[in-house]
Amino acid sequence: MRLFVGDDWAEDRHDVEVMDVSGRRLAKARLPEGVAGMARFHTMIGGLVGEDPEDVEVLVGIETDRGPWVAALVASGHTVLAVNPLQAARFRDRLGVSGAKSDAADAHVLADMVRTHAHQLRPVAGDSAQAEAIKVVARTHKTLIWEQTRHTQRLRHALRDYFPAALAAFEDLDAADTLELLAKAPTPAKAARLTTAQITAALKRARRRNVTEKTELVQAALRADHLGQPEVVTSAYAASVQALIAVLTVLNTQIKAMQGQVEAHFGRHPAAEIVTSQPGLGPILGARVLAEFGDDPDRYATAKSRKNYAGTSPITRASGKKKVALARFVHNDRLIDALMAQAQSALLRSPGARAYYDRQKARGAGHNAALRQLANRLVGILHGCLKTGTHYNETTAWSHHTNNIAA
Question: Which residues are within 8 A (CB) of 225 and not within 5 positions of it... i.e. 6 or more apart?
Fold first, then answer.
């Protein structure tokens, strides 16, 4: 006996529908998030199963692959199928074109989708607790870096509007010495009064080289003539810049702290040495790649399936006599970001990677396309190393492509 469950999840509740193999609705309910809701879910399933639960398979379709609720479903022995929201939306259109939508109807759509297309849906990966921990810290670390970039750009735009001398004086707006000096002197008038000793001290605390030379350059830039704003506008900008500086200072501290957490968690994973043996992957980038791929040994049957999940392999669009290969635009943004960074770094560290990239360029591919093809090849190499439990070997990795330019 098989039961198919659609679970439409919101922040504090789950709309659940259960149907049998014929598509007949057996039960429906709105369950609260947490222990009470999970207990009611088990009670509902238990009432449908009867006295012979061992011969029953429960397949649950839900639009997420993580969280305590999903973990509890997996721990209960149910097969949880993580459905992409885009897939669910397309399937909803098959059942009706009116545009009507409700949580209960979405639960029905998910249940029916699991009933008819379970063979085409990916079960939630059985990653280890270590891999889950790496994912948490690696994602937090990357998110903080993204926030640092956003706030730095906001700081840059503000300075351009009222204090262009600061942009001429400081190269790295998120650097410790820059933030310290801007906090002391957030207006052009105050910055022009900064002494040599103040600038030198800030540069030394930031461990800059050629302190004397840089001090002179910074002071000269801050004292040069630039267009400005009225005093009241400058004062308002200065207040906003000080707020941004405070945020960036905290972000810098927490990024460094989270980097230590990423390195510590990743270093304890059994696959860490294999991952970091790959060209272009160090502790941080390697942790991101491992976190997004997961460590379930049965999740990727072939290198092709891992490449497809990574989003590095091309998709083919064919119609009539026309056939083109295009980049995948639906992908895990965090994973593709890490893999492209690995490919860029590998160009400097692996002769085989460099030669492979150059061959793609010789065929007429642009930089991004050639880099994506290199990333695709590196994913295949990583897959082979993880499957066999072996470290990266430059000769073995690229021997197949010595006389073959195909991907």
Answer: none
Place of tokens 């460590």: 295
Assign residue 224 a region: left if phi > 0, alpha if psi is -120 to 50, beta otherwise?
beta
* pTM of the shown model: 0.83
* Rounded CA separation 8/110 (Å): 8
- Nearest 5°: the CA angle 382, 385, 389 is 145
Instruction: Kindly report, residue by residue over 12-42, the tens digit of the pLDDT.
Output: 899 999 999 999 999 999 999 889 999 999 9
| Confidence band, pLDDT 50/70/90 cuts, at residue 228 | confident
CA 354/CA 218 separation, integer angstroms: 39
Question: Distance (Å, rounded) from C-alpha 345 to C-alpha 73?
Answer: 40
Helix (H) / strand (E) containing 289: helix 283-293
* Rounded distance between C-alpha atoms, residue 383 and residue 375, angstroms: 12
pLDDT band at 330 (very low <50, low <70, confident <90, very high): low
pLDDT, position 90:
84
H or E segment at 392? none
What element of type H or E holds 184? helix 176-184
By C-alpha distance, which of 279, 253, 282, 250 is closest to 266? 282
CA max distance for the chain: 86
Q: Distance from CA of residue 298 to its chain's centroid?
A: 22
Q: Are strands 57-62 and 79-82 parallel, antiparallel or unpaired?
A: parallel
